Amino acid sequence: MSRQSHGPSLDRLSQLPSELLVAIFQQCADFSSVWSLMRTSKLMLSVFNDRASEIVSEVMLLAVPVQTRIVMQGILAMHMGTFSQWEKYSDVLRYFMSSSIRPANRIIASSAQLRKFVYLSHYIHVLAHLCIERMIQRCLDGPLGQRQYPPGFRLPTWTEEQRTVLALWRLLFWNQLKIEGANGSLGWSTGELKRLASSHLYDQYPSSAQVYQTFAAWVFIADISPAESPSDLSESPARDSFPLPSMPSEFDWVEFDWVCEPPPSSRAITQGRMFEVCEHDLDVMFPLQQSGHPQQRGGDESSPEAAQDTSHDLSVGSSPEHSLEHSSESPSQALPDLTGEAVQPPRRPARFFYGTDSEDESSDDNEWNTAEDFQEDTEDEESSSDSSSDTSGDGFIRGTNACMLIAPPSPDEFYIWGRWQPYVPCPVRDYGPQSLRGPEWEDLDREPLSIQLWHNSRWYSVAAPAQYKWFHPYARYGFAFWEERRMMQLGLWSHQALDDPVEYYRRWYTFLSQEDIKRLKTNFGYISDDDDYD
Description:
Layout: H1 10-14, H2 18-26, H3 31-38, H4 42-50, H5 52-63, H6 66-80, H7 89-97, H8 111-140, H9 158-182, H10 190-198, H11 208-224, H12 235-239, H13 266-270, H14 304-308, E1 413-416, E2 419-422, H15 449-457, H16 472-475, H17 484-489, H18 502-511, H19 514-524
Antiparallel strand pairs: 1-2
Helix pairs in contact: 2-5, 3-8, 6-9, 8-9, 9-11
Protein name: F-box domain-containing protein
Organism: Aspergillus udagawae
Region (Disordered): 289-395
């Protein structure tokens, strides 16, 4: 969310009827805008409380890509106690991690639950920008910092931002699932709970792209966690749940100053998903009781304080907003119970920053599952900005164990369909001017260029010693999120590599620092090859 001074003034907002104020909420470009707006005055908070379900439903429908929407709704359902319909760990992975389920178009929850959910969404949004900023700076701290970059190089594209946001939400989903299982809130059988308890962070993802994107998100979370928390990557923290850190205090002053690209198209939000044939949908996780009020479950078991409080009260207690708690929490107007994908958004959401009313500063709604409460080749850059990739060639890979290297084929021949054929290097399938794929923003789950190039290096013997490197150190530099254009700006990719990728494999090898190599050997025991390129 970027700070914009041309939004409606507070004086004018106070003179508008409530229906128009609700419409302003619904036009917000993201939940950071909603969070900022609802904290400007008691009037705006009251409007949100009265129509929270409508506002959250509309913003989620018009501003959140469908893969992210599915995971967000799963987390909200866990906190509402309506996630119990899922009885098997394998079903949760199948539907939520592969996004093969229809998201709910109507979110029904109490205003207190939705205020906390809005803050959590804002929190994840800010973490995504901090994560991107740190990864870009990590790239520039090395030799790549000597290169010349175009204006705006540090600003993420919409695709890069949304890939990072999605990775953080998926990490949070896995974390919350572990917490719910440990607390006995899922209603699963003993066998399913044991499977969940013994599962590794990487076990849940159907593609290596999701694995490494979540790994990058976990590295960032570990980096900003308190000193007493585990800050290095090993088997234990990747298997156990963990508390989300507080918002880093040194970034408080830029909490609402991030520059976000708008969605390039309404298709970026729908991601081309129509859900015409879908076995399950998420509408059943947000039911209405006979009284018209949503089901509620008190408690936030993920925080240290809530774990000691047996009451598990989700109310805001003595905050300045407490006086508004007794206002109607059900929507004034029910949204139609839609099925299938939403219609194309008729308007571009607006992004506003209004500042924060001083008397609302003590609100505890901004604490949900944090530590306190709730987690040289740029000539063809422009022609590549719409390039994309696909995961179809690596869809069978699951978890990092699947990335173990086997003996590479001979550089002169390759075994194909039972016959020996001359080996032709193919560094990537889905990038470059020859690609028939659409722009990268069309599918956030497509393999980014870097992961696809890394995959192919394993079968290309002249790529050694880069051939024997895990992808993990590159994920720390954002390679799992960057679009093709940024990799070109960094000098680590060019369309010339489609004909001869050897030079770029050399750059990838020399890119890593000795600290990266040491960490890689310590945590993953990669196969070492110290021979230089010929």
